[in-house]
Amino acid sequence: MESRKLSLLFRAVGVVLVGLTVGLVLDVRELSDALLGNGYPDHWRKSGLAGAPARAAACILGGLSLLALGWLYRLLFAPLELLRKPEEVGYVAEEGRTRAQAANEVRRRRKTGDLPPVYPNGWIRAKQKHVAHCHRAEGQVGQVWGICEQVAVFRAQDGTAHVVDAYCPHLGANLAVGGRVVGGCIECPFHGWQFRGEDGKCVRIPYAEKVPDFARIRTWTSCEVNGMVLVWYHCDGLDPAWSLPEIEEICRGEWVYRGRTEHFINAHIEEIPENAADIAHLAHLHTPGIVSGTDLRYTNSKTWEFLRHDWKVDWMPEPEPNRHCSQMLVKHSLTVFGRRWPLLDLDVVARQVGPGVVYLTFDHSFLGRGVILQGVTPVEPLLQCVSHSIFYQSGIPPIVPKFILRAECIQFERDVMIWNNKKYVSKPLLVKEDSAIQRHRRWYSQFYSENSPRLRFQHESLDW
Length: 464
Description:
Helices cover 26% and strands 27% of the residues. By secondary structure, it is α+β, with helices and mostly antiparallel strands. α1 packs antiparallel against α3. It is globular.
């Protein structure tokens, strides 16, 4: 509520600023005369140019002020939206080559290794194309892809989100491209067939006397939790075996949305959560301060070695009835010139629920409380879309959670550079201190079944 009031205040200041600028432009001739003393030459006055330079200066000053005000508003109040392109992060482009060329070459030439099944069973966050945040108005339709399926997500006029196959069974039109919501149905943009969201049954064909009983579209089991739309996937068509927990602070409006990031990762889906059990990589990859950036060729630069992160981590699976969950307990501290700053100590509990959803909850005595929700969506067998959305205490200035999300993004992009260029090793060479990695693989194997799809061939062209 407090940040909303400040947002309104900024808008009011902007309106006042516009009014002052207009007033200056209208009254600027007299101001120019006063500043120039003797005024403008007669031929300037006759031609109507008297006061023009001052008017132009006033307009430029007003425009620059509005731009500065807009930048300040976005910095302090607007949610952080950082959406990376597939080739934007994690690739090294040699001289004369673009990042997209480097990414495509890596995808074509990299060894894949002996891979586990590529699509695990469980709740998968819907990857929504051209939709910013899933708090959308009723009546909108979004196109979603994942687990090699294309589906349409739409919000009925009662506010309920539904997920159905994207292609109309009539003649194959994409319901998410031009389709519209009518009551609790989605209408095909091609011929106007209407399909009910709750069960997929066709309820209206504008030009037909009767709707066939067998006319229906496939519906997907879905839920909307903590601002996320999720789809249940199981290769054998089994019903959901567990549900996703709701965060009470989000439901009550105490924690509000402050931004999200999105990355594409060229790796097997299991590589991403396995990082939680790879404790040793934190001390090597994530110790350099965030100011040293994300390019691993320069993160250990001596320029920034005075700033270091220290990590103490433990990973463990949860017992029944939550065997589908695991936890990573993180204690973070920051040292500057070798001196620890207790004010920046941070405890994080990263709880993974199923194969692709993680709750990163943190509690700080000074910076407040919040959660980052991570969702991993398999777009292709070896291409994952990872999103992070942050919800934070409403009374804390938005710049605080935005900074936390940006710092997390920098650390995450260091992992992306590793993932995008590595191969999966099914039988890794491990030492005793790596035992958590093997335990994590045993835990994650519960999300595969006998019929889980595997990568049978490699495409000749995977260009972006």
